[in-house]
Amino acid sequence: GINAEYMGERLRFASFVAIFGPRASFVTKMPKYDHDLLNPPAHHEAKLHKLKRLVQSPNSYFMDVKCPGCVQITTMFSHAATVVFCSACSTVLCQPTGGKARLTEGCSFRRKVD
């Protein structure tokens, strides 16, 4: 008789053909990479999703924002969900957008180092 392994292969092939059609190929096309996958360039890593990077890292950070009016420095979160005011002159420093906060025109910032 016909062995069970052969029948299993035939069944898998038949289901593959039923799903993808008779002209589909078992061979998948691998994408070509122009860089080493274990040592990707920084600009390529920055484009990837935070969980898909070689080493996972968040997109958010804390930053020092300089008020354009009184030149006082305020620390705030890059993805602030509320309006941030200057503690000295009550000027609006940023507006929330749903992602990164939008700095008010004239404000300068520096990313905080860990």
Please characterize this protein's 3D structure.
With 114 residues, the protein is of the alpha+beta class. It has a three-stranded antiparallel β-sheet, with no helix packed on it. Strands 3-4-5 form a three-stranded antiparallel β-sheet, with no helix packed on it. Strand 1 and strand 2 form a beta hairpin. The longest helix has 17 residues. The termini are far apart. The relative contact order is 0.12. The mean pLDDT is 86.
SSE pattern, N- to C-terminal: HHEEEEEE
- State mean pLDDT (0 to 100 scale): 86
The major sheet is characterized as:
3 strands, antiparallel
Structural class: alpha+beta
**Strands ordered across the widest β-sheet:** 2-1-6
What distance separates the N and C termini? 69 Å
User: How helical, in percent, are the residues?
Assistant: 10-25%
Strand composition percent: 15-25%
Low-confidence stretches: none
Whole-angstrom Rg: 27 Å
The total strand number stands at 6
